[in-house]
Amino acid sequence: KNSKFSNPWCFDNFVQARSLRRAQDVRKQLITIMDRYKLLVVSAGKNYNKIRKAVCSGFFPHAAKVDPQEGYRTLAEQQIVYIH
Length: 84
What we know:
Layout: H1 7-12, H2 17-36, H3 48-59, E1 64-67, E2 71-74, E3 80-81
Antiparallel strand pairs: 1-2, 2-3
């Protein structure tokens, strides 16, 4: 936080400054939404299952399987998609 995600600090710590700034922006948006609905911001602590569930639930709508005739189909809605 003290370095404000400066480019030299990010380079020294093997992270991308733009990605950290984007993550910080998303976090601010989430906190604003939670404040609007009067929800508490609670850490998952060492409960990694909560984190795994959150990540998986976000990725599931984008999961797809190979369709031999059309390329790929999403698992949730069977929509035809292509890799780009």
